[in-house]
Every structure is written in C-alpha cells, then in structure tokens.
Amino acid sequence: MSTPSPSHSETDRxxxxxxxxxxxxxxxxxxxxxxxxAVQIIEDKKERDAHLAILEEELKIVKEKDEYIRKxxxxxxxxxxxxSNSYAAKSLRMNEYYQPQPRRTKKxxxxxxxxxxxxxxxxxxxxxxLD
Length: 131
Known about the structure:
single chain; 131 residues; mainly alpha
C-alpha cells in the first residue's frame, strides 16, 4: 500500500473541517428553529389562556345579569306595585339622562272634496242631461 500524499491528506482535512463546520451551522439553525417553535407554542398557550379568562369573565357577567333579571321578574310578580330600591335608583338615574322624542304635530292638509257625478248608463245624450 502506498502512503497518502501530504497534499491529499490536507484536502481531506480541509473537506472534513468544512463538513464539520456545515454540520455545526445546520445543528445551530435546527436548534434555533426548535427554540423558536417552543417559544411560539408557549406564546400561543398564553394567548389562549388570556382569551379563555376573558370569556369566563364575560360568562360570569351574563349570568349575573340573567340572575338580576330573574329576581326583578319574580319581585314584580310577587308585588307589582313595589319596586326594589336598586331598580328604582337605577330607573331614576336613567331618567335624568333620558330625553323623550319631540312630539309630532299633525299637519293640516286640506282634503279634496268628493264630488259624485250622476250615473249616465244607457243615456245617449249626456250633454243635454247635464244641462
């Protein structure tokens, strides 16, 4: 067997070094992409959790409104003449800002009078009949 020449071994070493460098760059880019993907997943989860919290809060508010409406309906059926204090206070507060619509005034338009003309069925000379 022959021994490799120094120039051939050097090119081999250079190609191995360039291959190792390329592998290192690929590994770094791969790990960077994996890290970015993991960060994106975490951010998406946080966003979903925040959205879920907002929806739960809205559901809680809707349930409270529904319960309030049920209570006011029950109290109005039980005693229709009495209003609860909180409802009356809210009603008064709304009335402070309420401005009723202006009343419509009726415009008097003169109507045409109806004139009934005589029936001319079977008459041959209508002009003499009108005179």
